[in-house]
Queue: 4 jobs
Job 1
Amino acid sequence: MVVEHKSPRHIFRRRAVMTSDTVTLHVRTLDVSEHGFGVIAKEPVRVGKTCSLVLNALVGEHVIQQTFACEIVYCILTGVDGFRIGLNINNAAIDSSKQHLRKIISSCSSPFS
């Protein structure tokens, strides 16, 4: 499976909580872009479902808690680490989240592909 990314990704490692339907998982973020997040979880999730991702991020000198409404676009077994999950920010919520995403991305290192 080849996953094409719409924009540069930045390393972003945080603990987060992902909730989809009635399932709540503790996940770790791996990267962030203007379109969403890459996370890793111990359990698989269903592609195409919507979910919320709640995380704390250090922006400047402040820790903020942010909730993002996302769609699960892929879920791939990555060996002993668990499942790598791609989350796209929902189009309806992207305007309200874009400013927070930009703040998070500005605090990250250089992008990678």
Job 2
Amino acid sequence: MTVWWVRRRDSALVRIAERMVFFGGEPMEDPGAAELADALADLAVEYVASARGEAVRQAGALLDEAARELRRADRFRGTLLPVVLSHIRSAEAVLDEAGGCLGLTLHPSDRSGVGGGGLGVGGRRR
């Protein structure tokens, strides 16, 4: 049963990495929760400091919240995988909400943003 939880955790982390590209993050292969949390926190700082409007700053606050959820997941370091997965799923939901602030609908199966096709905080294609 542990292998099942590990696969679900790893799949969820990949989905978060894919979503992060829409916000201007760099594509990651085999990301960990802490690595994703750091990258999302860096993006959040850019979004919160943006002069592009309240929606962008609100998305930045949500990116920071997603980073905090991933840090909570990382604290368990695989010992309580159902709890880890719960925090990762919360981070996914928050990222979807952040995308909604920007008028984006993020779908885990939509890989069109992978490889730098997403929008950065500057609103330009990367």
Job 3
Amino acid sequence: MECASNPVNVDKFLILPISEGSRTVTEVLSREGSFRILEVLSEDLLSVREISRKTGLPFVDAEAKVMALMESDLVEIKSRSSGLEGKEDIYGPAKRFVAFSSEDKSMVV
């Protein structure tokens, strides 16, 4: 297959150089519970309260992990809902794949 006939949307990729700059994303992903949050968000858009309930993580831990995943461009706010407690952010996975590249971007893994 030729790449020209099957273009790749580069906006769907989070390409990080293998260097100190990629350390934040790898640290966030290595934290206990982060992958579980991404798993539940891949099934449905959820509030932090719902993420906490579905993952079994304490609310404070779920909230901190969601914020870290947002800072790493792996999770994003999808909408806001109004509930009994007021407005609540609803989160979902960013539609991206993580790829690591050499610093000169000549090799992607």
Job 4
Amino acid sequence: MSRTSTQSIVTRTSIIGGLVGGLVHAGVAVLLWNRWFDNLWELLMTKPLNGAYIVLGMFLLGFVPVLFYVGEKVRSPAIIVAVFLLLSGFGSWLAGPVRPPSAVPTPFALYILLWVGVVALAGFTGRLEFRRKQRAASA
């Protein structure tokens, strides 16, 4: 039987996978953030709202792509996040030694600070790919 148009990528399995993906990305991002920018724990203690924004972004950058992939094998969100992560990490590595917190943020810090745009782009492309797969399955 073909898939209906009401099918959703949000299932129990995809949410659990998304949680794991979010935690893994957040763990890696915290290590890189502390290496190339400033100490995230100190930021959480001195500016809790800024720190919460950053930690939420670190988590969602891993959660959204894995949710799409586990839910319906949609790959485009993972590709987008991976490209941004790799390019920003490589750019920060090329930038050289650790900069003090008052300096211009590294490319990785900009990736994390601008996470809303990356998540929106990943979600948009994931939704397009999901719809394309649904149309192909119903045809």
